[in-house]
Amino acid sequence: MVSSGVKTPQVDDYRPQAPFLDELFELDGTPRPTARALVEELRRLGPEGLIEAGRRRDAIFMQQGITFETSGGGGPTHERPFPLDLVPRVLSGQEWRDIKRGLAQRIRALNHFVDDVYHAREIVREGLVPWRLVASCPQFARAVHGIRPPGGVYTHVAGCDLVRHSDGTWKVIEDNVRIPSGISYVLENRAAMARLVPELFASYRVRPVDHYPQLLLSALRSVAPSAESEATVVVWTPGPANPAYFEHAFLARQMGVELVEASDLVVRDDVLYMRTTRGLERAHAVYRRLDDDFVDPLEFRSDSLLGVPGLVRAYRAGSVAIANAFGTGVADDKAIYCFVPDMIRFYLGEEPILENVKTYLLSDPEVLEHVLERLDQLVVKPTGESGGRGVMIGPHADEVEIQKMRRVISTHPERWIAQDVVRLSTVPTVGPDAVLQPRHVDLRPFAVFGERIDIVPGGLTRVALEEGSLIVNSSRGGGSKDTWVLEDGDDADRAGPPIADTQPPALPDLRYGEWTGQQQQQQQQQTQRGRGSAG
Amino acid sequence: MLARIAHELYWLGRNLARAEFTARAVEAVFQAELQGTSETTPGISFGSGGLLAMFGDVNEDPTRPRNGQALGQLTLDAERPGSMLASIERAREGARTVRDVISAEMWEAINTTALGLRGGGQPGWAAPAGPSLASQYVKERTALIWGVANRSMLRDEAKCFLDAGGLIEISDMVLRMLRVALPAGDATPADGHALILLQAVGGFHAYLRAVTAPPNARPVARFLLFERAYPDSVAACVDSLHEVFTTADAGPRNSKPVLRVSRLAADLDFQRRALPDGAELTGICEQTQQELARIDQDVTERYFAGAATAGMRR
Predict the structure, then answer these.
(1) pLDDT by residue (tens digit) across B24-39?
(2) Which residues lie closer than 8 Å to A374 by C-beta, 6 or more apart?
(3) How far is CA B140 from CA A191, A507, B133, B170, in A?
(4) How far apart are the C-alpha atoms of B236 and B253, rounded to whole Å?
(5) Staple B193 to which of A86, A470, B43, B246, CB 3.0 to 4.6 Å?
(6) Host domain of residue A403
(7) Based on the domain organization, do A417 and A474 belong to the same domain?
(8) Burial of residue A132, with CB atoms counted within 10 A of its CB: 0-12 exposed, 13-18 middle, 19 or more buried
(9) Which domain holds residue B99?
(10) Does A1 touch chain B (CB under 8 A)?
(11) Which residue in the set B36, B57, B205 is minimally distant from A208, CB to CB?
């Protein structure tokens, strides 16, 4: 135990829960080396400081409208401030470099896979991925067969969900290459932390995240088919009723581009335009935030009112870039997930840096039988869903639920996958009365793929706020944490010396004194005038 | 109007504008310094050292105080003439002497701001967690004060001198900042990431709407110098200065400050057209700033000559 400082219950009484790995504390309650200074600052802040900061956080988030709508069990929905936990998660520079390399590799492979699926299908011919699985995937889009977007990039924006096992290794639990959301919370969380608890940053150099919108904008520009002028980029939202509308507006504002809805867009002669006060103006790249199903009633769901008729034709004609490309959902299907390590070996000839969680495909009768026997020890997930819907965690389910699930799975085994339970790592989280308690977390880093792959340091850490819970989705009561990636001394990517340590050269004629105030000026006038009257 | 009153109003405008600028800049720099440097884009360096240098205060001491303390000097330290508190106190003193010219509502707005910022004699009330609270307060209050002025003041000489003070202060601050952040020569990366400069003046959103280039040093400097549609750019301030002096001056046709301002406006316009996009702007910043200093001198001589000592009007 650290001996210095006054003892306050919150930090010193914290005990990680074996067998889970706690990212800030060793099992015996001593802080890990990277967390030592942070823990010291938390101790200094004390429970009152945390409660006070929490109050200001809620006020700021309500003011800024960074809120979340929750429904209290079928009742009326009500707004509550986005649940940001004030204890950050700390990743060392070394850890982050491994994650970054692993993610870049994985995303490259997923991008190859999308290209392959809609063209030569080599991976299927090699017998590595069964065609039946690909074709039965609801996100497989026949409409875009044979289309290759500029630069061969399909997965411009990707967010893979990572978890940390109790042995310290990072594993990918899910890929998101359709429309991963949450990046706005990464930026807002950082801004809020810097305002609310700047003390915590005192001994750290945390990598900034606020350049994400610029990365995204330049990636979108780099893939836009625009010969003569600067490409026009737009963000396409389904509308203000969408739960992620805040993020859509945030990104459009931060990139300085238009936020459009379907009614603002029109396709003429295979070219996409937006309606402006000065007539039709061409849009070259669309960052779309709605599902394939709804984008074009002529090619996908014909009953979609949110779509733009003819968009897929314009896309096929190469007059507009769409991010992410149509049909990328085939790569983040939960059944396809099992094959990603094979994809990495097949397309890149490399060994995967990040592992998958052990996953069982239930279409194989032998596997199915094995899984049905141990349902109480596994996690089962529906392949076509996202956001934690329909997930059953065996060890947390009761006998009735397991029986029910057994029947459902037996009828449609191909719609389900089973995974080993991952022992998600924990991070101390502020509970009621500012008591720190271990809570499970995952991590969603965000990657942008344009001319190269850029990954914003850290990502969205989601935290299950209920004790023992493994479900971190914000739609199901999860919160989030600011994720710090530290700069370490020998870091090759470092761009320059820290801002705080640079000393500007003094400019000879910048003397504040001349401008200090009117008194001096008056004195000056008096002397001048004195001289004037003497001469 | 009385030269003394005009003089006070002019400095009231300057002090309000400086308090607001300091509030924005301190907050932006504080937030930027908490974090490390960006991975991909080397940025231009404008931190608390730069901010202090803007106020003519270059600390040569290698054992400098950390970020928080340096910025604390610019927040609630009444002893430092550059702090927000000192600017607001000066504004309040100035407003007190012109209480008959400004409306009661305006005086109240200024007075409340000063009282609030003092925090009832409790030092550090607004700094439990850095300068954020004080900055936010000053930003809100100055917006309110200018709002009251714009909604309720007669558009006469008084308003002109108040505005003139604000305008000349903003353009001077922007120029100082550009010169400190982008010194001539090879001292900084030629075209680094310059988001911080936009955040320091609260112009980030305006920049994104007006310019398509990423916020790197050169386009940002161009924007802050030349963009007429952005009210705090130097060009826009100089244009407005011309307008207010023309209104206030009894004989604008042969008034030295009016002529000088109109020449500066034309010159900035010419430079904007003549200079290629990537050109270095350090020289123009320097010249413009010196020209503004001369304008300030001319203004003092022409309008406020009687202010200091009675009976010596030219």
Answers:
(1) 999 888 888 888 766 5
(2) A394
(3) 19, 32, 11, 17
(4) 21
(5) B43
(6) 358-421
(7) no
(8) exposed
(9) 3-303
(10) no
(11) B36
